[in-house]
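Entry 14. Two folds queued back to back today. First construct below, sequence then structure tokens.
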Amino acid sequence: MGLVVKTVVGMSSKSRGGVGGGEASARSMVSRKWTLLLCVGSFCAGLFFTNRMWAIPEPKEIIRRTGNKEAKMELIASDCDVKSISTKQESNDILGEFSKTHHSVQTLDKTISNLEMELGAAKAAQESFLNGSPTSGNTPVKKRKYLMVVGINTAFSSRKRRDSVRATWMPQGEKRKKLEEEKGIIIRFVIGHSATLGGILDKAIEAEDMKHGDFVKLDHVEGYLELSAKTKAYFVTAISMWDAEFYVKVDDDIHVNIATLATTLARHRSKPMVYIGCMKSGPVLAQKGVKYHEPEHWKFGEAGNKYFRHATGQLYAISKDLASYISLNQHVLHKYANEDVSLGSWFIGLDVHYIDDRRLCCGTPPDCEWKAQAGNLCVASFDWSCSGICKSVERIRDVHQRCGEGENAIFNSVF
């Protein structure tokens, strides 16, 4: 603005250069006053417009904006804390749910396995009924629940042993029938057939069975080297004929207290997959010609190694679910030379309850006698040196008198 005024004044004075000096000085004073006023006005106008354009925010607004930012930061921080806490809680909840789910899956898996075993047993039973008896001479028994089935392993040449067992610890006639009906206990001698089916040996067993009615016959060729196959056939046949909680295998040259055996097994009836006996881990015998030679010794590692844990063969018992497992998988279960080793191998990898009860392998008198006098009756008694009672036909009656539980003990017992 000042430049414009000065230019106008300059042009005015030049154009009027010819006027007199007094008039010129008067006009000059007027021009200076107006110029000064214009300059002051222009300065004030400039200040006014400058303040309007560049207004400084009040301190309150600055504080208010700063406060808003801090509040926002606090909200964000608190929100992060809440999110972190909720994230931790969610992770803990997820871990808890995962643990519950894992437990449920394990329980379901066990249930499915048990159902598969029972299904296998049911299929075996159905096939035996549709195709007739699973073995010649056996009559399918009406299904009811039993406590245990006791199978006494015997051979064609063991007639005297069988008679000695009948005369001591195995009830006969009406007592055996009462034992089955009232106590749910089945006792049978277990035998296969000869290589010439229907030969003189088989006829002798048929005549003996007609007299006593205490045999279960297997679809199996008898032979000492085939005990593993016979044991498997026994469990398959027994579970197809009788629905029991336990299946027991006994040799025909040992003494057994039936009531004590039943009471012992009844204590474990709530457990799944029970395998009970006198557990051992004997040496693997690689040398040919020795008793209990193991032809497949190389499967057990270096020379001098021991077998896995298994029950000694004189007496052992398994629960129904394990018997069902054997029945279901009978065609793929490997058989070792020794039947007790074979049975133990079938349960490797299963969630089995191993129960080591030394009352199932007491010695003959005085051992079992001392224990009986102390009120700790033995389940089974035999001589380790003979893997049974040495000269059992002559001695089992004496063992029975000194270590037996009494004739009516089984009928007075409550399971």
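Second construct, same run, same settings:
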Amino acid sequence: MSRKLSVLILGLFLVGLSVSAQQLNTQMDSTVTTFGEVTIKGKSVKYKALAGKQPVWDKKGNIIAGLYFTYYERTDIKDRSKRPLFISFNGGPGAASVWMHLGYTGPYRVIVDDEGYPVQPYGVEENHYSILDVADIVYVEPVNTGFSRPVNTMEDSEVAKRFFGVNQDIAYLATWINTFVTRQNRWDSPKYLIGESYGTPRVSGLSLELQNSHWMYLNGVILVSPTDLGIERGTAVGAANQLPYYAAAAWFHKKLPADLQSKDLTDMLPEVERYTVDELIPIMAKGGSISGAERKEAAKRIARYSGLSEKVVLEHNLRIPESFFWKELLRDEGYTIGRLDSRYLGLDKNDSGERPDYAAEIRSWQHSFTPAINYYFKNYLNYNTDLDYYIGGHTRPWDRSGNTTGDDLRQAMSQNPYLHVMVQSGYYDGATDYFNAKYNLWQMDVGGNLQDRMSWKGYRSGHMMYLRTEDLESATDHIREFIKQSTPKEGQPAQYLRKTKG
């Protein structure tokens, strides 16, 4: 072999080693700082943005993952002991924080029309309803969401074992939050958790884990479009509780009888809710033992409130699957309706079938959010990486066993007299429906002792109610009110007082 050829081969070998050593996933503890200014509620708000990763360590102090976060801090605040810190999570469980970051509470918002539908050109605009005027916010990406990743040396099975499960998720995120609060010097600030969808069991479980394992006590937890929080429904309650949502979706699409359709949505729904609790749940509990007359009358009432035919209701033994409802309600018009937001319409290949071919609302949202978030990180936050931004779908399999998060939140409230809870639900959300969100609150507090610290708010949109401009404005105002309600008066002790008999 000639000397020149040997040198060439050696050079190529060394280049190969250099390239292979330059792993994509190496920056586990680094940040980029930028500064910005937006107008919120008609007033200028200047802020600092910190974008980057903070590690997750194992018990021996070895880095096992890097969690990407974006932290916004208003810069004209001198005393942060009274400045709330919001810690924000999305759901999935594999969803990135993009949805609430660029849709709801952050300083910039994805460009959509007033009802939340995508428009071009894609991009972002100032969010004039952001809560950054009243609170600092950190958006956290759990492992395998956004830019967050485990170390490259970890096998997939080990990643799932350590990170992908209800309780695994809560444990490592609580430790991460503890480190973040310490690094940012926010221990004396009022702290809030806000979670959407699967983010709601996440923040519910965190409320207790932070108290018990880190002695970090919160002022508030906000549950946006909550799941069941591990609260059992059973076959009877689970089937019956869908009816109010069906009525809301049917009302929106003008499929209800004239007397119901002529009423406003929030005037119509209480009738359906009363029927569900007082009559339908007992009927469902009887199952096959009900008489033919009872069955026929129940089918008539369900059809009246759902917009479906009595024939279809009877064919399903009074229990209408959600996926069938999304296919059936507008079948005669050739459309399906959305799961997470039933205002959205889809077109299937065939009108026949038991479920829609695709989720119309998800496809619509991906139009807007995917290009916007990738553009935003690079051009507004100056965060550059060749990693893919995982919007969802990279946290399987997920261990859902041992989900007691609803009761965890109740226990955290019992232990902490300062802790308040607010639920925000969209009436047209068929995945985490508004009535089951109310049911959560009822079952979390069966003794009725915490009702003065619990609240529920409804909006005329779906799962991501904030995409609709009118609901964005009201929902963020509700957060501002919630902060005031959950802020104790100066010197007010965290204690329970016995009620005296008078």
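Quick look at the second one. The chain has two domains: 30-231+368-485, 235-360. The longest helix spans residues 265-286.
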